[in-house]
Amino acid sequence: MDNETIKRRIREFCQSPQPERKAEFFQNMKDQGLLNKHPRSLGHGEFLAGQIAYIEKRTWLLSAFLLLFIAWICRQNSGNYPFALTPFLASGILAQTRRSFRWKMAEMEYAARFSLRSVMLARMFLVGAADTAGLMIVILLVRTCFSYSLIRVFLYMMVPYLSASWLGSVYERKQRTDHGWGSVLICILSSAAFTAAPVFFERLYDERLTVIWAAVFILMAWNLMKSIREWIYGMEEPVWN
């Protein structure tokens, strides 16, 4: 059976209902001046601001709780273990890539005025920028709790955070069949890895290794940007079709 036969059979068994009051509908649109009216264009700032309301409140609450908890742990003079908590911040960012697929809305959002890739990129940027800014504030506040320089505290906080974000972004880009538990597991494993690392390598936080930490920071940041770029280009163009 060829495609034309299949289409004809579908039209025979699945006849669409006849439109009712179609002329009245278009007349009302014309009377209200909406028939030839085009959607108002939005600037980048206005578009980003509009997406804040669509980010789940629990995402912001989770980020605020983790940042406060990291700051509190640092104040308790608990050694280098607070550095291993930053991967959990990545879970809030990665959750933004999951909602459309979790609720089976991705196909519809592909054809919306603002495509799925534009919306997801905006939400990831907002949550990531907020988490990064919050982490910068925490670093400045807890700097005196460590004997390290400010740049070293920055690297020790950011490298685990970027590592979890990169690994999670790779996973989210390739696996869209679960409900996001895979990326959460990645954050947990990343935290566990950085917690256990000093046990096997006691000189991990030596000043002599600062250059290596800086190189890993640059590598993780580059890999994360590359992964997000590949994820974005795997979606539709950001235009209304």
Please give the structural blueprint.
Elements: H1 3-13, H2 22-31, H3 44-52, H4 57-75, H5 90-95, H6 99-102, H7 106-110, H8 116-142, H9 150-174, H10 181-200, H11 210-233
Helix pairs in contact: 3-8, 4-8, 8-9, 9-10, 9-11
Helix segment tally: 11
H/E series, N to C? Answer: HHHHHHHHHHH
Please give the alpha-carbon distance between the first and last residues. 32 Å
Largest sheet, described in full? Answer: none
How many DSSP E strands?
A: 0
- Structural class by sheet pairing and helices: mainly alpha
- Let me know the average pLDDT: 78
Q: What is the percentage of strand-forming residues?
A: under 5%
Shape: elongated
- What is the rounded Rg? 24 Å
Could you name the ranges where pLDDT drops below 50 across 5 or more consecutive residues?
236-241
Helix content: 55-70%
How many separate structural domains? Answer: 1
What can you tell me about this protein's structure?
It is a single chain. The chain has 241 residues and is mainly alpha-helical. The protein has one domain (44-233). The protein is 66% helix and 0% strand. Helix 9 (150-174) packs antiparallel against helix 10. The longest helix is centred in the middle third of the chain and has 27 residues, at 116-142. Residues 236-241 have low confidence and may be disordered.
